[in-house]
Amino acid sequence: MTYIKPLFRHPKLPKNKIGYTLKEYEGALSTLCAGCGHDSISAAIVQACYDLSIEPHRVAKISGIGCSSKTPAYFLGNSHGFNSVHGRMPSVATGANLANKELVYFGVSGDGDTASIGMGQFVHAIRRNLNMVYLVMNNGCYGLTKGQDSATADKGSKSKAGSVNPFLPVDLASMAVELGATFVAQSFSGDKGQLVPLIKAAIHHQGFAFINVISPCVTFNNNLGSTKSYDFVRGHLGVTSQLDLVMEKEAISVDYEKGSVVRVALHDGTELELSKLANEWDPKNRISAINAIENARENEQVLTGLLYLNTDYGDLHEILDTTDTPLNQLDEASLCPGTVTLEEINRGLQ
Amino acid sequence: MIQKMPKKNSTSGVNDFIVRFANVNGTGSASANFLFAKSIFRMGIPVTPKNIFPSNIQGLPTWYEVRVSEKGYLGRREGIDLMVAVNAQSLAQDIQNVKPGGYLIYDSTKRLPGELVRPDIHYMGIPMMELCNEHFTNPRQRQLFKNIIYVGALAVFLRIEFEVLVQLLNEQFAGKEKLVPPNIQALKLGMDYVKEHFEYPLPFHLERRDLIGDKIMVDGNSACALGAIYGGATVVAWYPITPSTSVAEAFEKFAEKYRVDKATGKKNYAIVQAEDELAAIGMVIGANWNGARSFTATSGPGVSLMNEFMGLAYFAEVPAVLIDVQRAGPSTGMPTRTQQSDLLLAAYASHGDTKHILLFPSTPKECFELSAQSFDLAEELQTLVVLMTDLDLGMNDHVSDPFVWQKDRKYRRGKVLSADELDGLGRYGRYLDTDGDGIPYRTIAGTHPTKGAFTTRGTSRDEYAVYTEDNKAYQRNMERLVKKWETAKSLVPAPKEYQEGKSSEFGMLFFGTSIFSAEEAKDILTGKGISLDALRIKAFPFHEKVRSFVEDHQVLFVIEQNRDGQMRTLLINELEVAPSKLIPVLNFDGMPITADTIAKAIADYLYQENHLHHDLYQTLV
Fold this sequence. Notes:
Largest interface: A-B, 65 and 74 residues
Shape of chain A: globular
Largest sheet of chain A: 8 strands, mixed
Strand order of the largest sheet of chain B: 11-10-12-13-15-14-21
CATH class of the largest domain in chain B: Alpha Beta
Order of helices and strands of chain A: HEHEHEHHEEEHEHEHEEEEHEHHH
Number of strands of chain B: 23
Structural class of chain B: alpha/beta
Helix content of chain B: 25-40%
Oligomer: heterodimer
Strand content of chain B: 15-25%
């Protein structure tokens, strides 16, 4: 099944700061099922990159295997993409990032790709505070192999065929907080208003930014009794705060009650403005984040929004103290020690 | 009292003998044994040390075998002329392993049990522990200097020049000069004891020569690491595994010295110890995909784990370099013993139709060269290159020709399009065979705002990198990959030919560390009037010269260090040669192959097939 997108562009389409229209951030036509949550997430990525005026070719999209991992073909068509092997996106992203620290890295994965086969690499990418946006399109099932339960399916959740999942779920968001991920958020594919600013904030975060997006599978896991269906998720959403990315320092708007707005500075000078904060939740405190997630769970809610943020740690390049020039741009002059040095080395071995 | 030596049929002569040290792992014997080997090297005499060590950090028996060869034979040889036995655990076995007429040095602090006394060897007891306890107080020193005492004893028995030993100790302890005098004291304790109690030198001993020239002594893993530094590798991802660990460690050591930006103090490299081998090769593929030269080093078990990614690199056409320091398999096998048994695994690694470029270095110099060259080949061919070394080459010190680097050598980065080149193109097709050599043009992320972007994937795609399940497009792509494989044959290193034209119907084929023993075996056979042609394979796919050598000879002895004749299988498979023509000559006990094993196997065949007279055969068995 091949679709050709129309090349026609309306001359009056609005342009962003660098002169690109939204169309120039789109990708090929999606081959996912009509109504798939993943397509909404792709659209949110397109919107976030357009809003931030990111040059599309300065983005690299890397994924594993599964429905979610197909999506990099469906957004940012002017960016390089790498649809790699199952569960190993984090290692490919690590290598790519080490080669060129100047690009924006989107890692796109699913619940099978991250919570099962790729659990090890997910954990270790967090440990290294790799500077990337790690986005999980989480639908609680294996869509591309026709609907088997995944490790994030809730205990008791009912499949389309009527079987009930007997196993405890892996909660990726609380795991990420526990492991020390420096940016952890959760969202819902049906809430573009929340997802777009979260993606923007994640891009600006210097380090590992994890967004777990509940993204219902319309074909295999949208039935009554499933805890990952559109209806169920919509009815059980909790929100930590409303969030906005503030590009330049501005005065805090006065609409909110005093004390209900928090500004958090990111490494690159931008700020996150969080408003309408949930009770007793401090975005920079891990215990508070874990408590908020657990409390929501007790109330049968999926907590969404920014969950945790830490701007104190340097990313992998800072840890390794790599040079400012991207490693893939160094040439013989800085890489090869030369013949005179080699003669010295030879003498030392005689 | 001077102990009289009974005369027996022992080895005699100059610069041609084997010493084996039997030690306890973790007692500091390695540096003393290296001091012994290096002093012989410094006296201008060819020498080959080999570690025979357990998979253990402390406590188990470990051996160090040193062959001295005036003729420059650097392979292993059977027969121990002199055993330095300082490990009580293995003493009985060590004594049994001495050649009749050979010599044994042991610690005579305690009397040797009667059942360990053989009538046919010479016993030279030195009270090493007693001497240490008398002269040193620190318990660690008492243990360490026992080793230096036997080096002192050997210096007198074998005529090692004292000044050479002193010089080496000074070099070893540069910056820690306080340690030199007690080491020299220990050396002298051993020397004086021998002078007082024994006849010396032994019938076989050393004499200074000028046979080393500008050669160097270094292990293959360090050489591979240095090759990667020179070859421009910037991203290293690895997971610890014997015997490859020291490749990454040596890279880091060299990089700290040669790759730190002088102005900023920042690093022109990144090393990541990955969570496993899968992640290591994943990072390498990610980095290469994004335009940095990157490699990993592992051994057989790691290559098994990397299979899926190796297939991705092949099919998605991403350059990558993998250094496989082979050890004895299968499974965990013998982690600290050598073998050449990953050939089939590496050559066709991963599911589907895959083939990978393999390079076979034989010496540290070639480790350096082929390691550097593997980055050129990987980028020129946009595929995985596996550098196949082994534990023997990787972890043992070898006498080698010095490293050479051509001044102003440029990296060959292959077909990578710049922004300007993209501007000059019509529609860019990642997998278009524009030049007819099967190698398409790559682009790197971030090059051009609107041209050249594509999605790399392991699933089928058309020439423009657009996902497709069209059967014809898939087949075209697979056929182009075969064309690229054909192109590779002219880019990989040619084999080493040992003769011009053809001088015999019989040929020897070998590769990697079999070089030393194969060359010696060739000389042994030539000495008996049996002439053979020889060819050393340096790469897979096979160069055209390998094909013609195989076609030109009636019988070929394929020498390798594995059970199943894996190189032979590759030759049969790739060159469609009749299997009966290829005679396997194998060694797979985990020890490096010896010249005698090779010469005997060839002689056996020639005798059975009526090519060798009975009397002559008798002299070879």
